[in-house]
Amino acid sequence: MRALIQRVSEASVTVDGELIGEIGPGIVIFACAMAGDPEDAATKMATKISKLRIFPDEQGRMNRSVLDTGGSALVVSQFTLAADTSRGNRPGFSTAAPPDEGEARVTAFGDALQGLGVPVARGRFGADMKVALLNDGPVTIWIDSGG
């Protein structure tokens, strides 16, 4: 799996003008299931992200996790994180998991994150989503489970 995490003050996702998910302080996670991901990739990624210390402590150092702060997560499926731009100018996405597998893994990831105690709002897999967020810091972290 791959994930792009942004620490946010607030975030929301709409589909066809309908608000389907929103959070206050926390993290937005753009998540992509990759072809060949092991079965436990979603759970391992959720565990890692739930403990990722990217929020400031009393001294202003990034030393607290989303769990420590009581923040929430907005999970948005994003197959374009699998983009291969090594040849030409049009990205290829052949390394992304097939849609059925991708949807199942991203859903499992959100479920695992919620099971760890992080309140989770979600986008809609395969939809044309409009994501609004106010990046805090800015803090943006890339995680790749490595397959």
Core attributes:
alpha/beta, D-tyrosyl-trna(Tyr) Deacylase, Chain: A, two-stranded antiparallel ribbon, 3 helices, 8 strands
Overall strand count: 8
| CATH-defined superfamily | D-tyrosyl-tRNA(Tyr) deacylase
Domains, number: 1
Q: Tell me the number of helical segments per DSSP (H or I, 4 or more residues long).
A: 3
- Biggest sheet layout: 6 strands, mixed
Provide the CATH topology.
D-tyrosyl-trna(Tyr) Deacylase, Chain: A
Report the β-strand fraction as a percent range. 35-45%
What is the end-to-end distance?
Answer: 7 Å
Overall pLDDT: 96
Concise structural overview:
22% of the residues lie in helices and 39% in strands. It is an alpha/beta fold.
How would you characterize this protein structure?
By secondary structure, the chain is α/β, with parallel strands linked by helices. The chain has a single domain, classed as D-tyrosyl-tRNA(Tyr) deacylase (D-tyrosyl-trna(Tyr) Deacylase, Chain: A, 3-Layer(bba) Sandwich). It contains 3 helices and 8 strands, in the order E-E-E-H-E-E-H-E-H-E-E. Helix 1 packs across helix 3. 35% of the residues are buried. The model has no long low-confidence stretch (mean pLDDT 96).
Strand and helix map with partners:
Layout lengths: L1 E14 L2 E6 L2 E7 L8 H11 L3 E2 L5 E3 L1 H4 L2 E6 L21 H17 L4 E3 L6 E16 L3
Helix pairs in contact: 1-3
